[in-house]
Amino acid sequence: MSTERKENKMGVMPVKKLIVTMSLPMMVSMLVQALYNVVDSIYVARLSESALTAVTLAFPLQNLMIALGSGTGVGINALLSRSLGAKRFERSDAAANTGLLLTFLNAVLFLFIGLFAADAFIRTQTDVSEIIGHGSTYLRIVTCFSVGIFFQMTFERLLQSTGLTVYSMISQAAGAIINIILDPILIFGMFGLPAFGVAGAAYATIAGQIIAAVLGLIMNLKFNKEIHFSFAKILHPQPEIVGRIYAVGVPSILMMSIGSVMTYLMNRILIAFSTTATAVFGVYFKLQSFFFMPVFGLNNGLIPVLAYNYGARSKPRIDEALKFSVMVAALIMCTGTLIMNLFPSQLLGFFNASEDMLAIGVPALHIISVHFPIAAVCIVLGSVFQAFSQSIYSLIISIGRQLVILIPAAWLLAQSGNVNNVWWCFLIAESASLMLSVIFFRKIYREHVMTL
Predict the structure, then answer these.
(1) Cα–Cα distance between 446 and 19 in angstroms, integer?
(2) Is the pLDDT of residue 13 over 80?
């Protein structure tokens, strides 16, 4: 019966149209995701600058959670799409079912981290009691109830892997909208509910994630005909499939986890200047997501297209997909650089910025955004490493950019005593990342694409 499945659209649809139809829903959903991240911080900033700083200090561990879920999803996505392209349907089903078990285990891990490590993690970054209280409360809630975000990411990846990106968009957007609606209600207390403060932002976040996960499950069961779920396969995973998932997933997890280490160390460097400098760094991360998230959405749509056509041995489709995606990503990021330079005060004003925050934040947005177009090219080239199960190259680039270059550069620039100088570390690191990306891309292209 499985051999009767019809040719997937990733092998026959015109490439530009395919990239748009695969990526646009995810780009839109990630824009909504970026919006709710920003709205979350806007409401928290209205409580106090200390509350905003606390959420910023919680971000590295929160990002580590996202890294584990997303990296596992990348491994599932690559194996599943490649198996579909090669018409190995039993293998694609095994990837999906094994992925669900791994997702559950991820949630259990972060339940224990939230219970026993949240407070200690915040205390390593500050000794201000108000910030510690806000940060540990927020972090404990989002980690202990991480089951929502882990299953949300996995179900969305399964939809993306088979080309059903519209349903993935619906799931993610619904979760984000629920979060946006609940934020003011739970933070400030509305409709008879008590004001939970920073905890309210965390409760709104996990509520949106759980609802998105439930929607993702429903849509996979109802619409994803290329995947067959089985409790027997979930409870009895094949070790070889687990290995294949994490052969791609672990480098991706480590790559994103390095981002957590980077933000943690940047928080430590910046808080030596002031808590306001750390708050500015947090605000920047929220704002830049409006431009990075759509490019990551493009990347997520591109990976299954590349993986499928690699399995189907179609070099012309791979080439066209890459050229078109680089152009789109560069256009998005150039727009981001322009907006950051033209409207920095207005953007910071959304976060109830004080005069001190504006004095630090305006130069920060000007300087950091210069590296956006370079990052666009690096992200698209990185999709090749993931799609062709060569994520080790992405890991090497990430380590080089964020730990070997960026953090030492930030520390050295901080010795000048001028916080404005620190922001140049992003351009320095991204330039090094581009050189490495081009070198590795040319190697992978010669070995894997030219031979098709």
Answers:
(1) 23
(2) no
Instruction: Give the sign of the dihedral formed by CA 197, CA 198, CA 201, CA 205.
Output: negative
**Burial bucket for residue 261 (CB in 10 Å: 0-12, 13-18, 19+):** middle
Question: Whose CA is closest to 402, among 381, 377, 430?
Answer: 430
**What pLDDT, in 10s, does the model give residues 392-446?**
888 888 889 999 999 999 999 999 999 999 999 999 999 999 999 999 999 988 8
Question: What confidence tier does 155 reach under pLDDT thresholds 50, 70, 90?
Answer: very high
Sequential DSSP letters for 63-99:
HHHHHHHHHHHHHHHHHHHHHHHTT-HHHHHHHHHHH
Distance from C-alpha of 166 to C-alpha of 156, rounded to nearest angstrom: 10
Report residue 317 as tokens. Answer: 């489709």
- The owner of tokens 């976060």 is 351
| Gap between the terminal Cα atoms of the chain | 29
Identify residue 2 by its one-letter amino acid code. S
Strand ranges in 309-351 using DSSP code E only, listed in sequence order: none
8 Å CB contact between 90 and 103? no
The Cβ of residue 330 has, within 10 Å, a number of other Cβ atoms equal to 18
3-state helix vs strand vs coil in the chain, percent to 5? 85, 0, 15
Q: Estimate to the nearest angstrom the gap between the alpha carbon of 99 and the chain centroid.
A: 18
Instruction: Return d(Cα 247, Cα 79) in angstroms, integer.
Output: 10
The pTM score is 0.81
Residue 2 is encoded by which pair of tokens?
A: 């499985």
- Per-residue pLDDT of 318-374, as tens digits, reads 888 889 999 999 999 999 999 999 999 999 999 988 999 999 999 999 999 999 999
* Rounded CA separation 259/401 (Å): 10
217-230 pLDDT, tens per residue?
Answer: 999 999 888 788 87
For residue 266, what are its two tokens? 């940047």
Residue written as tokens 């943690």?
A: 264
CA distance 56 to 268: 11
Average pLDDT of the residues of the chain: 87
- Say if residues 398 and 250 touch (Cβ distance below 8 Å): no
Helix axes 49-85, 129-144, angle to 10 degrees: 30
